[in-house]
Design a protein that fits this description.
By secondary structure, the protein is mostly beta strands. Among the domains are: 30-45 and 432-452 and 670-758, 7 Propeller (Methylamine Dehydrogenase, Chain H); 46-424, 7 Propeller (Methylamine Dehydrogenase, Chain H). 3% of the residues lie in helices and 35% in strands. The protein has four helices and 57 strands. Strands 1-10-9-8-7 form a five-stranded antiparallel sheet, with no helix packed on it.
């Protein structure tokens, strides 16, 4: 039964349609055609997210690939000493979640990716014959989980080294899949004993499925295929390791002396199969595990677990790597060994004895200093699912974490008990989710709010920031705002960091370079937020955004009844006259003015005393806005005060884009064929005062980045088919110091900066 559909949208064929797309996006004639050409690059942070796997090519020295869980795949370009993103030209967002990667073992130009963000998203097998520059796409019916639990298992995708037409893929829900035509079409292996547990409904826990596939190259000859292969199953079934000696036609179980789940496996040149085991699929929830070695000739198992997990030192094992140049050299990583910490072990005798890398590790993170997290030393790592040793260089090894990839050029020192230096191997990688961005009219051009890694001040867009938001450190930074006429005053809100905890509000008086924590009183009588019931800590954590008056004197926190402080948190007062859970915005010029909309009634409330009290003000022109209230703290607020203009407001509705020039007295709909999802206002063109508009939005089915120089009446598309990024655009900030520049926060590819091409 066929389970795939072949497409062929390569980078070149995509570009063939670029001119037509660009022209269709123009409404202002040839003068705007030049402006539509933009140069895109990343604002550098360096890594920042979870990388589940790294795989070296066995066909060429200096060639490696990695897969991320939400930011696509990368190729290591040795000549440039940097990672090259491979999926920025793909418009399908699901492709950015990479379930598995497989470089061809014989042809260094060929590589395959198994892609699909989750069980609700489309999935495909991608093949490139030029190292990821172009892709042939085979859409498949078996769903994947590139950003679901179990994404550290694998590798699921395997190429027969004796016949590279043949590929096997261990799926999560639909058993073992096979291709005999270089991945163009796929069929389920009916003889495989585990058919899969079937696609279960979200949010039920996903399945681990077939966790890895390993070919034994000794069992075949070139051109005739391999006869022996192994497959692990990370589902709750009785037999979890299977072997075939007839190229997958029939299978027999390989009984294991325990009930753990096989996570990853590597086969050495002598026929020993090394397997890491855990009692869960990760990357969280694992409390037990082991490492075993199987003599594939005799079927004998040997327990080679470095350190047996205990009740107070739990966790399991995930990453595994062999050194093909030095038989017997093997390395493994722990997973969820929170007490005392995760670590990596290295053995030179096939697992009989181990050396712990943690005590002798030195992490040099000066190239990405955010890894200090405000501490004196960078953490060794967590979520350490990926591990690899360069097959051409025994001294070069790497392991992945939840925030970076560490590599060393002196791996043998671990076994000698000598200090081993590890460095972030992330040049070119930006694998983060951006929640909010703010551009200041003076000082640093950009402030950023990230998921998982707090946020930063960006003085130099080409260097990893030295200044991370600390005191307090947030897990996520959800909002950043500044005083319109005193932009050195900045405020932010977020969610607690799992290690640091503490307040979820902060203020700065030096453009965000240093911070003071801020805590608003809890409102015991506060009702649940709209659409949410039973929320704990709803005042101080969860959804409490913050804004600041134009002169920087008043902070307002969005508790159920907004509260203001005029003495930096020394005392607080409830704002009067507002409906519960209203969220005012501050006028960017007039320090006395704040504006709020009641989404249920469409009424406008205005304060003219710095937020102490609000009055209803007649307003006209808005449609029914009851469906426009954001219900998630990470979504930008739809009411926006324009910089540099008193009383000028914008409102983003599902029914269109609206503008007011008189403080909300009258809104008018801006006639446009672009449906705006997010909006930011930037520096005006030379000789003009009206800000330029930038938007994430749709024209028909095309979701893209847009710019308007005429208050939203006409829009130019400013990204192109080479810069799609899965169209996973999440937020944006127009530069207030440089006309034409815009920053875009993605869900997985970090921060992008776009400048008009010269």
């Amino acid at each position: 039964m066929s389970t795939s559909r072949l497409l062929s949208p390569s980078r070149r064929t995509t570009l063939a349609g670029l001119a037509g797309v660009a022209m269709s996006g123009l409404q202002g004639g040839s003068a705007q055609a030049f402006e539509a050409s933009y140069r895109w690059r990343n604002v550098r942070v360096g890594g920042g997210g979870f990388i589940p796997g790294v795989v070296f090519s066995r066909a060429e020295k200096g060639l490696a690939y990695l897969r991320s869980d939400m930011g696509g795949a990368y190729r290591w370009e040795a000549a440039a000493s940097r990672w090259i993103p491979l999926l920025d030209n793909q418009a399908q967002g699901s492709w950015q979640g990479v379930e598995s990667v497989a470089p061809d073992p014989l042809d260094p130009d060929v590589v395959y990716l198994a892609v699909g963000m989750g069980r609700r998203d489309p999935a495909a097998i991608l093949r490139s014959a030029n190292r990821g520059i172009d892709w042939t796409i085979a859409e498949v019916q078996f769903r994947m989980g590139g950003n679901e639990d179990g994404r550290g298992l694998g590798e699921r995708l395997a190429i027969d080294p004796n016949d590279t037409r043949i590929l096997l893929f261990g799926s999560r829900h639909d058993g073992l899949q096979r291709s005999e035509d270089h991945g163009r079409s796929w069929q389920k292996v009916e003889g495989f004993p585990h058919a899969g547990l079937g696609l279960n409904a979200w949010p039920q826990p996903t399945h681990g499925g077939v966790s890895f596939v390993v070919f034994d190259p000794r069992s075949g000859r070139p051109g005739q295929g391999s006869r022996t292969l192994f497959a692990g199953i990370a589902d709750p079934v009785s037999d979890r390791l299977w072997r075939s000696d007839d190229a997958g036609a029939t299978w027999k179980p390989v009984p294991a002396p325990h009930a753990l789940l096989p996570c990853k496996a590597e086969l050495d040149t002598t026929g020993s199969l090394f397997v890491t085991y855990s009692n869960g699929i990760g990357p969280n929830g694992i409390t037990d595990g082991a490492v075993w070695r199987l003599d594939t000739a005799s079927g004998t198992w040997t327990d080679i677990t470095p350190v047996r997990p205990t009740a107070n030192k739990g966790g399991g094992f995930m990453g595994i790597a062999l050194d093909p140049q030095v038989p017997g050299t093997v390395a493994v990583t722990s997973l969820n060994r929170w007490n005392p910490h995760d670590t990596l072990w290295r053995s030179t005798d096939g697992g009989k004895s181990w050396a712990d890398a943690w005590p002798v590790s030195h992490r040099d993170v000066e190239t990405t200093p955010f890894l200090y997290w405000g501490e004196a030393e960078a953490d060794f790592g967590w979520w350490m699912a990926g591990l690899a040793i360069d097959p051409f260089d025994s001294e070069f090894a790497c392991y992945t974490t939840g925030a970076t990839i560490y590599a060393t050029r002196e791996f043998s020192k671990v076994s000698r008990g000598e200090t081993t230096t590890w460095f972030p191997w992330v040049e070119g990688i930006e694998q983060t989710a951006i929640i909010t961005l703010t551009s200041l009219p003076e000082g640093p051009a950009l402030l950023s709010g990230f998921g998982d890694i707090s946020g930063f001040v960006h003085d130099d867009l080409t260097a990893s920031p030295r200044v991370q938001f600390t005191n307090p450190v947030f897990g996520n930074t959800n909002t950043i705002d500044f005083a319109g006429k005193a932009p050195a005053v900045v405020v932010r809100s977020g969610t607690p960091h799992q290690r640091h905890g503490g307040p979820t509000l902060a203020w700065s008086q030096d453009h965000g370079r240093s911070w003071q924590p801020l805590t608003a009183p809890s409102l015991a009588d506060a009702p649940d937020p709209p659409g949410k019931t039973g929320r704990s800590r709803k005042d101080l954590h969860q959804d409490a955004a913050i804004t600041v008056s134009a002169d920087g004197a008043t902070f307002m926190v969005m508790t159920a009844v907004p509260q203001i402080t005029r003495n930096r948190g020394g005392s607080w007062a409830r704002a009067r006259g507002l409906p519960v859970w209203a969220r005012p915005v501050a006028d960017r010029v007039a320090p006395e003015a704040f504006y709020a909309l009641d989404f249920a009634t469409g009424e406008l409330f205005v304060s003219r005393d710095g937020g102490a009290g609000f009055d209803r003000q007649p307003t006209s022109g808005l449609p029914d806005i009851s469906a426009d209230r954001p219900s998630w703290r990470e979504v930008a607020w739809p009411l926006i005060a324009a910089p540099g203009h008193k009383g000028r407001l914008w409102f983003i509705s599902q029914k269109g884009l609206y503008r007011s020039l008189d403080g909300g007295g009258r809104f008018e709909r801006v006639a446009s064929d672009v449906t705006v999802e997010a909006l930011s206002l930037g520096a005006p063109p030379p000789g003009r005062t009206a800000p330029v508009l930038y938007a994430i939005g749709r024209r028909g089915d095309l979701r893209a980045l847009w710019r308007s120089d005429d208050d939203g009446r006409s829009w130019i598309r400013i990204n192109d088919a080479r810069h799609e990024y899965g169209r996973r655009f999440r937020c944006l900030a127009a530069d207030l110091q440089h006309y034409g520049r815009v920053y875009v926060g993605t869900d997985g590819r970090g921060i992008l900066v776009g400048d008009p091409a010269l």
